[in-house]
Amino acid sequence: MKGKVEIYAIASDGSERLLESGRNLTVDGAGELIVDMLTTPSSTLGIAPRVMDTSNWRFGALSFGPPGGAFDEGGYFYTEDTTYSSVINAIGSQKTLRLLSNSARSIDGDTSTYVPNYHKPSYPDVLDRRLEKADTAYSILSGDGTVSYGHLENRIAFASGDPSSYFQGGYPTSSTTTNAINAPQAAIVSSLIGDFTDPNVNATVLCASSYYPDFASTYQYLSGIYSDFNYQKTMDYRGFATVDYTQNGTLTFGETSVSSFAGATTAEAFVEDPRVVVECFIGRWDIYALNCYGGFHQMGLWGMDCKEALKSNAAPFLESDGSYIDSNGVTKQEFKLFAKKTFTSNLALTSDQNYLTLDIPGLLNQGPLKVRWILDFRSNHD
């Protein structure tokens, strides 16, 4: 089996430009999932026979993340040093990330551009169980049992009132989230020392409403910073973007689909041409969040770990309304890493001078991306 990943930048007029293209790495978890699917007898587990339905063993989610070296800086800033208590309290109450930067790290002197410190992502290994071989500083220091999956999680959307959610990392909230719209905002600061009761302290660029561009309605539902994943209710609090098998060429931002290479979703189409295409449209503010937390350097394709999910739930792992994710961001699904793709460059990097508009700072001058991940199960590959 071979896999190929393509990343496209989508301009405001809907045109697409190929940014990256390359092979993925299929990890050991892929083989384990196939073996589990073929060897897990429903009678032995004492549950409904529908556990053997192939829908419980298919691709389950995508996830995205920065290099491991970013997990204790940028948006992930976390420290036990009491001298930084005002910073920690300010971030939690103001919902404003403090991104330490300076002109030396900007692009061509664009001082309102946020460029995360560069860290090379870990070398991909077939034994990988997580997207990145690193834990966030918060998960190490907190002692509260927080698990790191090696990717950007979605903690803020479901715990926007908890300051610790910002240090665990997360995408913006939904445009429909009460009292939490536009979180997380961000400010580029020249120092992390001072009284941060005023969000403008040490800020060279503050994320403010006057900077929001006029973007085509096709790519942005409302004005403001919010997550398309959370608007569509497709991502759980752990940062897994659920794959929807009912979509057929009608994707919008925040959604992920699976189809045959020809675009069909019928079983016959996959038999005739066993190439599977996973597509995801990532909204501009979700890209913005990835950049705030260190960049977009990793992407994972996760299979549904039915065997693990059966320990506490019954197939087919749906909520009463037919959805996979409840209002608290919890899903009955469990996932195992199937394949991953690593990028040496930061796909979320932007600047004051990029193709969107010159009227807003590079911190916010983001455009959406399209992911096209092709898995080729044919015996004779291209």
Description:
- It is a single chain.
- The chain has helices at residues 28-39, 42-45, 85-94, 137-141, 155-158, 163-168, 228-231, 267-272, 284-292, 306-309, and strands at residues 2-10, 16-23, 25-26, 59-65, 96-100, 185-189, 203-206, 241-242, 256-260, 275-282, 298-304, 335-342, 369-376.
- It is globular, with a radius of gyration of 21 Å.
- The protein starts with a strand and ends in a 6-residue tail after the last strand.
- The model is unreliable at 208-223 (pLDDT under 50).
- The chain has 382 residues and is of the alpha+beta class.
- It has one domain.
Summarize the structure.
17% of the residues lie in helices and 20% in strands. The protein is of the alpha+beta class. It has a five-stranded antiparallel sheet with strand order 2-1-13-10-9.
* Number of alpha- plus pi-helical segments: 10
Structural domain count: 1
* Classification by helices and strands: alpha+beta
Order of helical and strand elements: EEEHHEHEHHHEEHEEHEHEHEE
